[in-house]
Design goal:
Blueprint: E1 2-6, H1 10-22, E2 26-30, H2 41-44, E3 54-57, E4 67-70, H3 72-83, H4 91-121, H5 127-147, H6 160-169, H7 183-193, H8 196-202, H9 217-224
Length: 230
């Protein structure tokens, strides 16, 4: 049994997509980050960065003690290796998927996340930050759009690279991006959106970085003040 410690953020949804695609037996353990549940000692014991997602595999392939993981990219790689799916076995195919997984982890996610923060959650507008991160998000969209030219998915077949990137494209409107400007991303995005596993993963999930979402002062303090809820 796999336990996924999760909240409905783009990073949280990455391993949830993978679990839905593979059909691995799993249990979702909600971690309400607005209430500070990510600071609970029992969570920090295996997720020391106080961030979701985190995972416990109580039936690892080696038959040993449970495997505990934090960081969404590491979780995706682990699940791909456990199942033998969505990560090619050959040297070049694997390297191709892994470089795009790291591109998302090191680039698309952090830049789009800062974009969403300053456009939606900052207590007051910071024009320089909004312009800087909106422009960088657009640049990264351009990189992905060019990569998808003539390809159905990022690295040929559907892979953990696609599962890593898709949740960060979902809030494109809140990030100031128009998919009409990126036709290859739009085609790819719509194809993934219609996958049954994607529909299951996103069922009932509120849109991340939605301008309609209002944070309380307590939530703001927990999410952006790096401190537990009082």
């Amino acid at each position: 049994m796999i336990e996924l410690y999760y909240w409905g953020t783009p990073n949280g949804l990455k391993p949830r997509l993978m679990l839905e695609e593979t059909g691995l037996e799993h249990r979702i353990v909600p971690v309400d980050i607005g209430k500070g549940e990510q600071f609970r000692p029992e969570f920090l014991a295996f997720a020391p960065n106080n961030r979701i997602p985190a995972l416990i595999d109580r039936a690892p392939a080696d038959g040993g003690e449970p495997v505990r993981l934090f960081e969404s990219g590491a979780i995706l790689q682990y699940l791909a290796e456990k199942t033998g799916r969505f990560l090619p076995a050959d040297l070049r195919g694997r390297a191709d998927v892994m470089q795009w997984l790291f591109w998302q982890v090191g680039g698309l996610g952090p830049m789009a996340g800062q974009n969403g923060h300053f456009r939606v959650y900052a207590p007051e507008p910071v024009p320089y930050a909004i312009e800087r991160y909106t422009r960088e998000t657009a640049r990264l969209y351009g990189v992905l759009d060019r990569r998808l030219a003539g390809r159905e998915f990022i690295a040929g077949d559907y892979s953990i690279a696609d599962m890593a990137c898709y949740p960060w494209i979902v809030p494109h409107a809140a990030h100031g991006q128009d998919l009409d400007d990126f036709p290859n991303i739009r085609r790819w995005f719509e194809a993934i959106r219609e996958r049954p596993a994607t529909r299951r993963a996103y069922a009932g999930v509120a849109e991340a970085y939605s301008p309609a979402r209002k944070l309380s002062d307590a939530e703001r303090g927990v999410l952006f003040g790096a401190k537990p809820a009082p």
